[in-house]
Amino acid sequence: MSDHPSYPPYPSGLRLAGRRVVVVGGGHVAQRRVPVLIGAGAEVHVVSPEVTPAIEGLAAEITIALRPFREADLDGAWYVIAATDDRAVNEAVSLAAEERRIFCVRADDAREASAWTPAIGRHEGLTVAVLANREPRRSAGMRDEIMQALREGVISIAQDRTPGVVLVGGGPGDPELVTIAARNALASADVVVADRLAPRELLDELAPGVELIDVAKLPRGRSASQEEINRVLIEHARAGKRVVRFKGGDNFVFGRGYEEVLACAEAGVPVTVVPGLTSAISVPARAGIPVTHRGVAHEFTVISGHLPPGHPDSLVEWPAVAALRGTVVLLMAVQNAPAIASALIAGGRSRDTPVAVVMEGTMPGERTVRSTLAGLEADLEAAAVRPPAIIVVGDVVAVSAPGHDG
Ligand code: SAH
């Protein structure tokens, strides 16, 4: 230990699944380590007279002894973390571990410890662990840079290039609101088939060799455009390409995503799904409108307004929706908004029910128009509301925080 200060550590990936790991201490250091240990499958045993609520919340997955450390706590342990804020206790843990030949990390004094915790990151099945010679800030900084470089494809591990289709939800429009999985999928694509509402900025970042197919520009010919899209997806996947089907929001929220899943399955093409942040919730959120709020709305209903109430093909029971008390979130509803507002009033919703219309949510052109069910038609017209827009109906619209510009 301290008598060999200049030797570098010997890196090793501990496989802790099913093995007892003792964490002595129940404060913020323990709180950060325990979830990672649980994630590695370890049988975690925490010993501390007091633990933070976050550790308490993990009680179903770990064992906790609410008392001071005893040497016998280390019986059967494979690994120990001394994470108290009391130097003497950490010292005692460390000595007891040393005697039993169990590797022990010390939160207070790395020089005296037999093991060090690296800064870690995970990316597509890869674990990055950085040890910067007892300088935790430096190791975390280096880890962050490596992770960012991996995410942005500046450095790349052998990408998953198996042929097939990946349905990727791109979120509501702001490129920051795309998931890491979505970015990884785009980085591994040979072909990207993109919708108009998919976040466009991300397409500029595609590697030069990637073929970009804009669905809005597909020839419509005799086949319906969805059939044409299915055909394009299957054709490229069969040619050995990795195809990303990139859409706005989440592919299964009015995105016809599952039709593509079925078409691929029928054609024997492997298909995977990367869920996205749906505009139905995130666009109101960014505009300062919560879809639920304690004491105001205990439910929200997301409805496509592309057909007016009473349309023979409509699957929406508007009188039942009107009879609910909660929030109604309408997508694709700009054109039919007046008819929908009338149906909700006819079904019993108050004429004064607040309504917010959020256009181009999370994007530079975002604009919110506030109205009521009775005033909606005139206000949509006066504000020249155009799609894409989300219409939120319900008392949650009135709870926005003062000063929020939504
Ligand atoms: N799958 C998408 C929704 C597709 S339907 C999702 O989960 O978000 C398309 C409709 O979504 C648009 O007509 C509009 O009502 C809504 N929409 C999508 N993105 C939007 C945005 N950034 N701002 C406002 N409305 C949006």
TrEMBL record:
EC number(s) from the headed UniProt entry: 2.1.1.107
PANTHER family assigned to the protein according to its UniProt record, in alphabetical order: S-ADENOSYL-L-METHIONINE-DEPENDENT UROPORPHYRINOGEN III METHYLTRANSFERASE, CHLOROPLASTIC, SIROHEME SYNTHASE-RELATED
Pathway terms, separated by semicolons: Porphyrin-containing compound metabolism; siroheme biosynthesis; sirohydrochlorin from precorrin-2: step 1/1
Lineage of origin: Bacteria, Bacillati, Actinomycetota, Actinomycetes, Propionibacteriales
Active site: D195 (proton acceptor), K217 (proton donor)
Entry keyword Glycosyltransferase: no
InterPro entries for the chain: 4pyrrol_Mease (IPR000878), 4pyrrol_Methylase_sf (IPR035996), 4pyrrole_Mease_sub1 (IPR014777), 4pyrrole_Mease_sub2 (IPR014776), CobA/CysG_C (IPR006366), NAD(P)-bd_dom_sf (IPR036291), Siro_Cobalamin_biosynth (IPR050161), Sirohaem_synth (IPR012409)
Recorded GO MF terms: NAD binding; precorrin-2 dehydrogenase activity; sirohydrochlorin ferrochelatase activity; uroporphyrin-III C-methyltransferase activity
Catalysed transformations (reactions): precorrin-2 + NAD(+) = sirohydrochlorin + NADH + 2 H(+)
Assigned keywords, A-Z: Cobalamin biosynthesis, Lyase, Methyltransferase, Multifunctional enzyme, NAD, Oxidoreductase, Porphyrin biosynthesis, S-adenosyl-L-methionine, Transferase
GN (gene name): cobA
Residue ranges constituting the Tetrapyrrole methylase domain according to the UniProt record: 165-376
Protein name: Uroporphyrinogen-III C-methyltransferase
One of the GO BP terms on file: cobalamin biosynthetic process
Family annotation (CDD domains): SUMT
